[in-house]
Amino acid sequence: MKTLSLFTTILFVLFSSVSFGQSKSSNSENIKVWGNCGMCKKTIETAAKSAGASKASWNDETQILAVSYKGKKTSSDKIQQAIAAAGYDTEKFSADDKVYDNLHGCCKYDRKETSSVTPAKQSCCTDSACTNCNHDDCGKDKQACKEKGCCKS
User: Fold this and answer.
1) 85-101: b (≥16 Cβ within 10 Å) or e
2) Could you say which architecture CATH assigns to the domain 24-107?
3) Has residue 17 got a pLDDT over 50?
4) Which of 49-58, 68-77, 98-107, 128-137 has the lowest average pLDDT?
5) What end-to-end distance do the CA atoms of the chain give, in Å?
6) Is 121 helix (H, G, I), strand (E, B) or coil?
7) pTM over cut 0.70
8) Is the pLDDT of residue 51 over 60?
9) N or C: which end of the chain has fewer CB within 10 A?
10) What's the Cα-to-Cα distance from 126 to each of 54, 75, 114, 130, rounded to whole Å?
11) Pair 106, 37: CB distance under 8 Å
């Protein structure tokens, strides 16, 4: 009788932990991350894990990061922001130019194409009262300011 009671208790605990483990929101996805080499791999994976990823594996040939994380602890955006903060462009976020410039020479990848006018710097180009735009405020491309009508030159 004691054996049956012990066996039933063990089964109950086993099934309880399995169903409890499944109730946690676990996500897996593949994220495009630009980079080149083994040093990039280490930095990208470390950044992803520092942002809450439980698993992160970046392939330098495909430039795809396979990542797993608990949805209650972090998100894809938070992971990608951490990677961008480390100097690497992701499919949703771009690394700051200063951080990218500080990467080791072998880690300087071909940057993803981005709009020449960043959203944070776009206000001078969208403000209809602006007529004398400082090109540094609108991004690197003077043509973008001209197209928006900020610049007379």
Assistant:
1) ebbbbbeebbbeeeebe
2) 2-Layer Sandwich (3.30)
3) no
4) 128-137
5) 93
6) helix
7) no
8) yes
9) N
10) 42, 32, 18, 8
11) yes
